[in-house]
Design a protein that fits this description.
This protein has 15 helices and 24 strands. About 55% of the residues are buried. The chain is α/β, with parallel strands linked by helices and about 500 residues long. The longest helix is centred in the N-terminal third of the chain and has 21 residues, at about 115-135. The protein is globular and about 75 Å long. Helix 2 (about 60-75) packs across helix 8 (about 225-230). A seven-stranded mixed sheet has the order 15-17-18-13-12-20-21, sandwiched between helices.
Length: about 500
């Protein structure tokens, strides 16, 4: 993560001067919406109104799809790969050049501390740069054919117009993680960002045109409901990429199936286990890594390892170390302060939803205990202290349902077999972490745990970047590959061709 270059006063002044454009961006410019409805985004650390955003409707989506289709057919698909690569490199550079404004938008609308928001924007630029380089990689196959007059081959082609419906927890980064591989593969995009934090994605569409990308490659339409449904059900959209709740993802799959049967790339959340064996309890950085994986971004991370499966003999010492690490790692306060590392939940609705699990946990006997942070939360914001359900069992709702907030469930286990049973007793299968020094156990756990991304750890050091590690969720967490060359392949179709001559 790149450290912010400014003090709190500088960021406060920059936030006051920041302007928002809530209009749809279609083709070459922002345009007046067909819908007359609007909604207002809210600053979650003050509770005050922030920006007025157009509530796009089916007509706005249709205009954006037509612009994307025209650009795909006439410009983007026939463009030589090296030119498309140059455009993505220019887009990555433009994202980095506008990093402070983009980070401020995410910070103000979603509540992410400015230090974290800057890091997320930098990651979006790296994601784009990675897929720019991926364009140059060879792909396709030539089949064996005995006859001299037969050429048999296949190649990968773009699908066409891709609809991207993205979440609010990392507003720009989540959108770019779908947009970058989609346009690198030769598709054009219509993005529908979350109404909680749409502004950075709307700004991205403008930045793309200013960076020289052909108008229509990236279009963005904000909206609260109708726009997303219209995009998922549009007959001229060839694929949907979605990140969000499992319930919304299933509705999108139904709409896609009932329209033109378009495929859906779906990430529908998780309830990821973090399994800590006794042989790992003294590892340097263990407690800090556990606390970070659960409470970073105020727990609003789809791959947050919020099921802490702990070998029974180390429950007490590990709990105390995680408690102390949480206090060291997280400073609560105004997210515009570079020293703050723990912000509010993204909205009043999210705070109410997460708070409800405190009552659910109490009724279940889950033993909630608040964990301390440094600093003081501002008045009026949607803040919640990190918390641990210290006496949870695998059957409890707090241990099974994705809370998407700073609450973890601690579940003791006796041995490796029980740990695997508990870990896999879930409708989700997004990610998992296993802490152990035993290489044989590590190999067995990697095989037996049902999750798309698995970290086996004897160190708290940073892992490989998301974009270079392709992975696909299990179960109710979704389907479709994110990351790596296969992450671009997911936005392409396979064509088989044979040429037969005399």
């Amino acid at each position: 993560m790149t450290a912010p270059a400014h003090a709190r006063a500088d960021w406060t002044a920059a936030a006051a001067a920041l302007s928002f454009d809530g209009r749809p961006f279609i083709g070459a410019d922002a345009c007046a919406p067909l819908s007359q409805a609007h909604f207002t985004t809210e600053c979650p650390f003050t509770g005050q109104a922030l920006a007025t955003i157009a509530d796009g409707n089916a007509g706005d989506i249709d205009r954006a799809v037509r612009a994307a289709r025209l650009c795909f057919a006439q410009v983007w698909r026939p463009m030589p790969p090296d030119e498309r690569q140059a455009h993505l490199e220019a887009l990555a550079a433009a994202i980095h050049a506008r990093r402070e404004a983009l980070a401020l938008m995410d910070c103000l609308e979603m509540g992410m501390p400015i230090s974290n928001a800057l890091g997320a924007v930098d990651e979006a630029a790296r994601f784009t740069r990675y897929y720019a380089a991926a364009i140059a990689q060879p792909r396709g196959e030539v089949a064996n054919a005995d006859a001299a007059g037969i050429w048999a081959m296949n190649w990968l082609e773009p699908r066409g117009v891709v609809g991207v419906i993205s979440s609010w927890n990392f507003p720009l980064l989540v959108a770019v993680s779908a947009i970058a591989p989609a346009i690198a593969a030769g598709n054009t995009v219509v993005a529908k960002p979350s109404p909680i934090a749409p502004s950075s994605v709307l700004a991205l569409a403008r930045i793309a045109v200013e960076a020289g990308l052909p108008p229509g490659v990236i279009n963005a339409v904000p909206g609260t409901g109708e726009a997303g449904a219209a995009l998922a059900g549009h007959e001229d959209v060839d694929q949907i990429g979605f990140v969000g709740s499992a319930e919304t993802g299933r509705r999108i799959m139904v709409a896609a199936g009932q329209s033109n049967g378009k495929p859906v790339m779906l990430e529908g959340g998780g309830k990821s286990p973090q399994i800590i064996f006794a042989d790992a309890v003294d590892l340097d950085g263990l407690a800090e890594s556990i606390a970070g994986s659960v409470f970073a971004n105020s727990g609003q991370i789809c791959v947050a390892r919020t099921r802490l499966l702990v070998e029974r003999s180390i429950v007490a010492p590990l709990t105390e170390r995680v408690r102390a690490a949480t206090a060291r790692l997280f400073t609560v306060g105004d997210p515009l302060d570079p020293a703050v590392s723990y912000g509010p939940l993204a909205s009043r609705v999210q705070l109410e939803r997460v708070s409800a699990y405190l009552e659910i946990g109490a009724a279940e006997g889950a033993g909630h205990a608040a964990l301390a942070t440094a600093g003081t939360a501002p008045d009026g914001g949607y803040f919640m202290q990190p918390g641990l359900f210290a006496t949870a069992t695998p059957a409890m709702r707090v241990a099974r349902e994705e809370i998407f907030g700073p609450l973890a469930a601690l579940i003791p286990f006796a041995d490796e077999a029980e740990a695997v049973r508990i870990a896999n007793d879930s409708r989700h299968g997004l990610a998992a972490t296993i802490w152990t020094r035993d290489i044989g156990r590590a190999r067995r756990m990697a095989r037996d745990i049902d999750a798309g991304r698995i970290d086996i750890r004897t160190s708290a050091a940073a892992g490989a970047p998301l974009q270079v590690m392709p992975a696909e969720p299990f179960g109710g967490s979704g389907h479709g590959v994110l990351g790596g060359q296969q992450g671009m392949r997911a936005y392409q179709r396979l064509k088989s061709v044979q040429i037969v001559t005399d």
